[in-house]
Write a structure and sequence with these properties.
Mean pLDDT: 93
Oligomer: single chain
Helix content: 40-55%
Radius of gyration: 21 Å
Strand content: 15-25%
CATH superfamily: Bacterial extracellular solute-binding protein, family 7
Number of helices: 13
CATH topology: D-Maltodextrin-Binding Protein, domain 2
CATH architecture: 3-Layer(aba) Sandwich
Number of strands: 10
Number of domains: 1
Length: about 325
């Protein structure tokens, strides 16, 4: 009996010394692991496991194998999973203020985007406070770049080109933008857009150019129109109860890992988009830049989008719009 007890104690000591995982942190991701968000999560995983000595075992479930993008907020908030990556706009039902990043042409420079997403900024603090009410809190932000349009047979240069067309969107405010331009928005998850384009469910696509590369959308669409009409942001969210149940030391290590991953993806975004545009061209896509006059035509139809946003987001919406410089 004594030898058995001593052996068990030695085993426990060995487990502690080699840092065998004691707590799982499962993360749901709708994109493929090879996407830049997937690779960023791999970096986060490595940082967490290194900094915690293996006390946290990060498991990434990519390509919507556990939850689709639209299901992540509820899954994380309920504790069904410890963490998930969701497009910021997936929180618009509970927190309309999040869609400030989809106000047409508001975040039209890298400086404006960085100012808004900086920790401690009015925009970020306001949004994160609202998300926390859903049972999950933002661990870090993942940059995804500017929104573009996809089509077949020619570009979508002006609102008249969109008139009467069915358009894939991934958020309410983007739908309002499409309606203002005369199109018919259809809400389609990122993991489902390839089939939607292939089957002709929609005529026009909307995504970030990095998604064109990771999902090989050149197989089903032949033209990119570079509108950059919105800034696409994803957030890595953790369940409040799970997070608060960790020790302060472990939370600190995870937060440090999150800061490394957040800075990495933000700093690489320009090169990621450049590489994606190059890959699209190499695979036969036509990339069309808009003239100043064409951009002005899009801006001219956008005011109803701002009006609808303020009606939904109220004081919080006005607060972040003002902070963003509008």
């Amino acid at each position: 009996m004594l030898r058995t007890l001593l052996g068990a104690a030695a085993g426990l000591a060995l487990t502690a010394s080699v840092g065998v995982a004691q707590e799982k942190m499962r993360i749901s991701l709708q994109l493929p692991l090879k996407s830049h968000l997937g690779q960023n999560l791999v970096l986060f995983e490595q940082e967490v496991e290194s900094r915690t000595g293996g006390a946290i075992d990060v498991e990434i479930y990519d390509s919507a194998t556990l939850y689709k993008d639209k299901e992540v907020p509820a899954a994380v908030g309920s504790g069904a999973i410890e963490a998930g990556v969701a497009s910021l706009t997936r929180y618009v039902g509970d927190a309309p203020v999040v869609d400030v990043f989809y106000m047409p042409f508001l975040f039209n420079s890298e400086d404006k985007v960085r100012a808004a997403v900086t920790e401690g900024s009015v925009v970020r603090q306001t949004i994160e406070a609202e998300i926390e009410k859903t049972g999950g809190q933002v661990l870090y932000w993942q940059a995804y770049g500017g929104a573009i349009m996809l089509s077949n047979g020619g570009p979508i240069r002006t609102p008249s080109d969109m008139e009467g067309k069915k358009v894939r969107v991934f958020g309410k405010t983007l739908g309002d933008f499409v309606k203002a331009a005369g199109g018919a928005p259809t809400l389609i998850s990122g993991s489902e857009q390839y089939l939607a384009y292939q089957r002709g469910t929609v005529d026009v696509g909307m995504t970030g150019v990095s998604g064109v590369k990771s999902r090989k959308l050149w197989e089903v669409m032949d033209t990119i129109t570079v509108t950059n009409h919105a800034d696409i942001e994803f957030v890595v969210v953790v369940n409040n109860d799970w997070w608060n149940g960790l020790s302060e030391e472990i939370r600190g290590h995870i937060a440090e890992a999150a800061a490394v991953a957040q800075g990495s993806v933000r700093d690489k975004m320009a090169s990621i988009e450049a590489e994606a545009y190059a890959a699209a061209k190499e695979n036969g896509m036509t990339v069309v830049e808009l003239t100043d006059d064409e951009l002005e035509q899009w801006k001219a139809v956008s005011q109803p989008v701002y009006d609808a946003y303020l009606a939904a987001a109220g004081e919080a919406g006005q607060k972040v719009l003002t902070a963003a410089g509008n």
